[in-house]
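For the sake of transparency, this paper describes our internal protein records without simplification. The tokens are whole numbers drawn from a learned vocabulary of local backbone shapes. One such record is reproduced below, unchanged from the form in which we store it.

. . .
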Amino acid sequence: GGFGLYLETGQNDRYILFRDDGSSSNSYESGTDTVLATIVLPDGITINSLTANPLSIVFKPPKAAIYLNGAQALNNATVILYSKKVADKQAAVSLNRITGRILAELQNRP
């Protein structure tokens, strides 16, 4: 087991915090894993794009292994957030699976 986040652009105003209970998939499995909370983003903030859609990020103790969509093949995951209040900028939240570093930055929209 471990704990994780599940995001998808089809539900772009929220994400799920979950406990990875089930199989050894190391990713979110609806109906198998325990949903700890569904976090609704503040009004006007949406998930615009993901490295992979959907995106499941699992942190697995005790060695702090990080799995992106059930594997360790991807080394980085990025979530792009838009705000209705800031039309020319986007927020990019990136996770480096190897170092565990999380970087959040404001960028110009393409």
Observations:
- The first strand starts at residue 3 and ends at 7.
- The CA atoms of residues 95 and 102 lie 5 Å apart.
- The radius of gyration is 14 Å.
